[in-house]
Amino acid sequence: MKAGDLTTPALLADAAVLERNVATMSAARPGSTLRPHVKAFKCTSLANRLAEAGHLSFCCATVREMEGMAAAGLGNDLLLANEVVDAAAAVRLGALVAAGSARVTVAVDSSATIAAAVAGGVPEVLVDVDVGMPRCGCEPADAARLADDAQRAGLKVRGVMGYEGHVQHVVDADERAALAAVAMAVLAGAHAEVGGDVVSGGGTGTWDCNETVTELQAGSFVLMDGDYARLGLPFDEGLVLLTTAVSVRSGVHAALDGGLKAMAMDSGDPRLVDDYGGAASVLFCADEHTTVAGGPWKVGDRVGLRPAHIDPTMAKHEVLHLVDDATAGGDAEVVESWSIDLRGW
Amino acid sequence: MKAGDLTTPALLADAAVLERNVATMSAARPGSTLRPHVKAFKCTSLANRLAEAGHLSFCCATVREMEGMAAAGLGNDLLLANEVVDAAAAVRLGALVAAGSARVTVAVDSSATIAAAVAGGVPEVLVDVDVGMPRCGCEPADAARLADDAQRAGLKVRGVMGYEGHVQHVVDADERAALAAVAMAVLAGAHAEVGGDVVSGGGTGTWDCNETVTELQAGSFVLMDGDYARLGLPFDEGLVLLTTAVSVRSGVHAALDGGLKAMAMDSGDPRLVDDYGGAASVLFCADEHTTVAGGPWKVGDRVGLRPAHIDPTMAKHEVLHLVDDATAGGDAEVVESWSIDLRGW
Prior knowledge:
alpha/beta, Lyase, Ornithine Decarboxylase, Chain A, domain 1
């Protein structure tokens, strides 16, 4: 099947780019030194490609992702790199352990999250440490106390995690490395007090400069996005939203049938795959359309867009179509169609 | 069931606000003078409430919405207010007509869209006219020719449509009305040449100043959002994302477990339902979290957020929970849970 036969908007992934990106990351971070972050793609078929490349430990952001990965036989070592305080959610995690379908580790950063893990039957935890981004994670000075509390409550403390999310998108590589070093010094300090085998953190932006973590929590590298592309990393953009030009005012503008319900807008507008040497550009996105200017389009043309942010774009689609060349528009050959099966909560 | 028993993030709709907003709109635009726009809420259960209020004609933006509305028995008069050029999509629309499950009208603005309607077996069309927003719609001067072409091709031309989307969010009411009048003069001019019973257009922002349309295409008014709330319309905000504070740095910030995968970001950050007299505020949204500052929160608290844009927020969720008081956090009583069943394409 050709991509031109798909109902648009349709999300395409370039098979060769995916393979190349995974190979590049695997060479630098082999086996369990990479803990691919499922939140970036929410797709067990794509996770299987990473498992085939030797990465059998995964990182999740939601309970639904944990359940889906376990159901797909990818439960070898699942980390929920997020805090859980809801009793029902903790019970869902514990049920995976009781069923023998997953090894489950959860992040804790408070007495309440430790209590939830115990009550839900989650046996293993990492102490989540704030390394500079105001989100989750305990004060570094509290890490040792929380680890003691967790152990006393019967939990196995595997180590620490800390995500330097505020550093990932710093464009200058030297500045990014310097900021990552500051953040990771905090995590290393907490690890010295907590102990354990695992120091988990990092992401696509710090893939080559984070020397502290024993496992890198990266996901975006698999298909990249416009925001990460600015960093000049050796990973290529492989994600394209294929649209159809449904209305064309010749020489003025065209309306494409994919808009902000099909692409994430938190990192800005998408870019055109083919901007005709800079002669064409995106004007704005509406709910169901993207208006573009300057191209030679005619009604019915298939037009590709590069989303600015991969994670929430994937979460908007039911299917990801793996194609031989995502830049080929409607002429691309569809190799496989993968369910984006880990959406929701 | 209490909202506090739901897994968060959970999307809540205030039952009383919904009822009041529908009553206000129905009083001004009764029966078929309102064609509610399904794209705003993507939920047949909510559409049923509008049907119960006497509105039996609906407006859709996607083929999936058309199919879902027909399947739910709401196919009395469905307008796809969007252009279709894809042959398979047109066939899906024609199948609804052939099955007798819907009256189907589609927007046309080019020879290609007329040809698709004919080929797909869609019997009725509106000529879509550009009234000032660069998206879909023909040049006004082309409307009569397209209507003739459609009629010669065997289609019934019911009239015209034109959406003054560039006017909807103008905050000043007088300026909004003046701009709407300019746009609608264009549509009235096209209508004079095309003929037909239907002049379709408008939205929540021009609900009381668009004097031209025979039917108003409004949807956001049902539950509103932060962007429309700035206009001071007599519709209340009724949509809340209920989250849980999963990590709290006392007196500094809290991380709530709903972020930009659960709320649309194209119109900016959400607001807190309760900002404690201005003492608390949203700092930023990440994929799975919203970081808020200044509140008295403790881990496990349920915290409500008001999304900035209703349409794409609804599209991110599987379920909308109708509650007695969406501002009551975890104490709200869940009256009904509605499937958001019209997502996708």
